[in-house]
Design brief:
The chain is an alpha+beta fold. It has helices spanning 17-45, 59-66, 68-98, 105-113, 120-130, 139-151, 300-325, 329-337, 342-353, 355-370, 374-379, 391-400, 406-436, and strands spanning 161-162, 168-170, 176-178, 190-193, 216-222, 246-251, 254-260, 266-269, 277-280. The strands form 2 sheets. A 5-stranded antiparallel β-sheet has the order 2-3-9-6-7, with no helix packed on it.
């Protein structure tokens, strides 16, 4: 370079507004068609009645809060927003922390995250079967009934009743008592019918009990001969014994003796049973425990939230695990060296450092929950759909259901947008702060 010859400043190319507009125009058109126009039209449509011709102003918004079904949907939506994201995030945090130290942590994360590959519709069908009332089909009730029957012995012959014409009559509460009193040295037979075939499968042939001096004996059996031809109140060949049946002797309203029928259906009561009526307590015939009505009006919302947590806990776990991988290990080790326990390290160090990630997961799930529709629509049966209703489902029912009212449906859509807006604003502010860092 020659001395004295200076180099002037470089010219900065002026932004070409026209070129930028050309590139932005397609995106703006798509944004306007898919976002701006639907929002604007929903706000406009919410100001008119069901026909779309009568201007009602804010009338649809007033009707929205006065309608009982919509109030139920709003209450359920609040429960969803409070419970589902919090539980999913908490489980994701626990899974992420616990699987960090085990060898099979990756496999566990894969299993927990796998439900994310299933659509909401498929998950709804799966959990409709899981929550089925019949323990033979529903996994939840199969487990619940198994646990219940472990601690509470089921009735041996649910639904059984005395044969017509037998010396037994209802005595209240599902129990049956003899009309006459028992005498020592005699045999009192107890013929029953309406016994389920599965309850006598493998049972022995009933045997007529022999009288014993000073005692009361008898036989309880299924007084039914397959193919017909049997005699009533008589033990015929092929008629099955009812083993495990409790027989009580009752005098003056008090149980004075009790016995249980053996494998051949026979029982023996001591001398105290003489002069007492024999009673078959209701515990012999109580209906089998059928589990919990998971999809009934009382539990349908918690049950559906459980299916949502099953799907989205893996999503929370993966994001939190990614944030946990960026936590400085020297901080954790220094805390342990200083005598902090694992719970203190988790609560005082891990959780504060993971706070930004936890907020991201929580906010994302809150926005997702406000739009929940598929799970509720598929899992809740018709009898409980009203109790499980949420705003997104009510929007669909009001706009396209039997009583079509697009004005009311548009008002619900606008209200949902108002609910989502603060959450989105918080999320945007957080993202701007992250960029500044």
């Amino acid at each position: 370079m020659r001395a004295g010859v200076g180099v002037g400043p470089r010219r900065v190319a002026k932004p070409r507004v026209g070129v930028a507009a050309v590139f932005l125009l397609p995106a703006l058109v798509v944004l306007g068609a898919l976002v701006v126009y639907p929002i604007g039209f929903s706000v406009y449509r919410s100001l008119f009645d069901a026909s779309g011709n009568g201007f009602v102003g804010l009338g649809n918004y007033g009707a929205m809060f006065s309608d009982e079904a919509i109030r139920t949907a709003l209450g359920n939506t609040v429960v969803w927003v409070v419970v589902a994201p919090a539980v999913s995030t908490a489980l994701g945090l626990v899974f992420a922390v616990l699987t960090e130290r085990v060898r099979w942590g990756t496999a566990f994360k894969l299993v927990v995250f796998m439900p994310m590959a299933i659509s909401m519709l498929a998950a709804g069908i799966i959990f409709r079967l899981v929550y089925d009332q019949d323990p033979q089909r529903g996994v939840a009730n199969a487990v619940w009934v198994a646990v219940h029957d472990t601690f509470a012995k089921p009735a041996p012959f649910p639904g059984a009743k005395p044969r017509p014409g037998a010396d037994l009559r209802p005595s209240g509460g599902g129990a049956f008592s003899t009309r006459s009193v028992a005498r020592a040295g005699t045999s009192v037979n107890l013929p029953l019918v309406a016994v389920q075939p599965s309850d006598v499968r493998g049972a022995r042939q009933a045997v007529l009990a022999r009288p014993r001096p000073g005692k009361v004996t008898g036989t309880a059996w299924l007084d039914f001969t397959r193919g017909g031809g049997g005699r009533p109140n008589v033990i015929d060949p092929g008629e099955r014994a009812l083993a495990g049946l409790t027989v009580q002797a009752v005098r003056g309203g008090r149980v004075v003796a009790s016995a249980v029928t053996g494998a051949e259906g026979t029982y023996v009561l001591p001398a105290e049973a003489a002069g007492a009526q024999l009673r078959l307590p209701a515990a012999n015939f109580a209906a089998a425990y059928n589990g919990v009505d998971w999809l009934g009006p009382a539990l349908v919302t918690p049950a559906i939230i459980g299916s949502y947590v099953w799907m989205w806990a893996g999503f929370a776990m993966v994001l939190i695990a990614a944030g946990l991988a960026g936590v400085p290990r020297e901080l954790l080790e220094a805390a342990r060296v200083d005598g902090a326990g694992e719970w203190q390290v988790f609560r005082r160090i891990m959780v504060p450092l993971l706070a930004p990630v936890l907020v991201v997961v929580l906010v994302t799930l809150m926005i997702n929950v406000l739009k929940i529709f598929d799970l509720v629509y598929v899992i809740a049966p018709g009898s409980s759909l009203r109790s499980a209703n949420v705003l997104a489902l009510q929007l669909f029912q009001s706009s396209f259901g039997t009583d079509v009212d697009e004005g009311l449906g548009s008002a619900i859509a606008v209200f949902l947008l108002v609910l989502v807006a603060p959450v989105m604003y918080v999320n945007l502010r957080r993202m701007r702060k992250e960029r500044r860092r």
